[in-house]
Amino acid sequence: MTNRQFLKQLQKLLGKDGLLTSPSEVMLYAYDSSMARGITPEAVALPRTSEQVAAIVKLAGKFGVPFTARGAGTNLSGGTITPKGGLVISLTRMDSILEIDIPNRCVVVEPGVVNLELQNILEAKSYQFCPDPASQKASTIGGNIAENAGGPHCLKYGVTSNHVLGLEVVLPNGEIINLGGKAADAPGYDLVGLLVGSEGTFGIVTKAILRITPVAKGVRTLLAIFDQLEQAGRATTEIIAAGILPAALEIMDKLMIWAVAQSGEALYPEGAEAALIVELDGLEEGLGRRLAECVEICRANNAREISTALAKEERERLWAGRRGAAAAGAKISPAFLVNDGTVPRDKIVEVLNQVEEIGARWEVRIGSLFHAGDGNLHPNIYYNPNDPEELEHAHFAAHEITEVCIRAGGTITGEHGIGMEKLYAMPLLFSPAEIALMRSIKQIFDPAGICNPGKVLPEAQ
Questions:
Q1: Which of 45, 75, 78, 345 could disulfide-pair with 420, CB 3.0 to 4.6 Å?
Q2: 181 and 278, same structural domain?
Q3: Among residues 214, 236, 264, which one ends one of the domains?
Q4: CA distance 408 to 422
């Protein structure tokens, strides 16, 4: 149980509306968008400034209270729940865009800024923040930084770490530090790179300097429908091999196409085995030629239908099914376990065939969405949450899929993080010496072990 004196001091620091302690309020913070569950936190702090965050962390250290920073709770690996209870530090009230610096092509934001809201503001100025995770309508910049989020357009533009120039961070001892900045090539160790993707286990980001990029002058989108998944996979590989670098290359399998069709999100043909979306952007000159090359590659791989779009409204229609696919999964089952592995592009079809075999063996339905351009697979395992045996089978299937990705020369996450759900897989990918090295880095930042504990690294045996 959290010390009453600790809560009293927090209340004094944050004011009446800055601390949640009633069971009906704090219970909402015992879970996120993953299947993992934690111990209900004793309190939720709602700071408005970096100084308040630092003061909260210092108090937590003084009383030995574990704490977890949190944004919108869209995490898919259990990274924002509290396995040891304690304190949640919700950063949703720190949601200001502090500066838009067009000459230096950057913005300064607080961690609670919602990704899509930032995108909409920048779009009016003909700029963009490139990382576009599927959760961008809700997920915050702080969470994107913690998970090193990607999205469909990371093939061409890179993941979050490629677009973070500087950070203000509250360390687990309550000290505020500033890393990087607007100037390029900061000297010293790349501590910004170390913090991005550390899943909130090294400290709490309270401000970020983000690189912004001009919106492309021209965009073309192609949707190709195939009768075999292998055909879509080959088309993807051949597009890259032809020297074409699309902004996005996305594939959906048969089950997800069916779900999207049932939900009315898009008019994809239900009987198709695969849908491939290719998006090209850049200067208008040459876009038409590259689009024509992609069409020919798809035709050569026996695409049965091909649609192309230039106008934004038409492009949105082609994207509608992919963007609505996660929600459309409710047509398959009321619950699903999201997988997130990455494999070499030329192994995608081989791995997906093994995924299909795993689904049959464990008697669970698996529908796959994937960022085909960088080999990031999301096989979603659908199950009945009221059937304990089916839930167990979903977990067993997920573990086997992770092992298949590793054997194919891939890795255990592309953008969702390790959190709690994939702790079991870390020893499958890393040697004891490598895990020990990571643990020693965590110890430097957080010697007391109270900053988002129980995440990323399995406990020492």
A1: 78
A2: no
A3: 214
A4: 18
Same domain, 392 and 285: no
Domain boundary among 407, 425, 446: 407
What is the tally of structural domains in the chain?
4
Per residue in 182-203, pLDDT (tens digit) is: 998 888 999 999 999 999 999 9
How far is it between the farthest Cα atoms of the chain? 71
Looking at the chain, the number of H-run helices and the number of E-run strands are: 16, 19
β-pairing verdict for 87-90 and 43-45: parallel
Beta strand 213-214 with 127-128: parallel, antiparallel or unpaired?
A: antiparallel
Residue 113: CATH number of its domain:
3.30.465.10
Question: Is 425 within a domain?
Answer: no
Three-class secondary structure assignment of 281-320: EECCCCHHHHHHHHHHHHHHCCCCEEEEECCHHHHHHHHH
Q: Locate 211 and state its tokens.
A: 């690189």
Would you say 261 and 267 are in contact if contact means Cβ atoms under 8 Å apart?
Answer: yes
- pLDDT digit string, tens, across residues 47-84: 999 999 999 999 999 999 999 999 999 999 999 999 99
**Cβ 377 vs Cβ 352: under 8 Å:** yes
The Cβ of residue 71 has, within 10 Å, a number of other Cβ atoms equal to 27
Directed axis angle between helix 4-14 and helix 50-63, to 10°?
Answer: 170
Q: For tokens 């983000």, name the residue.
A: 210
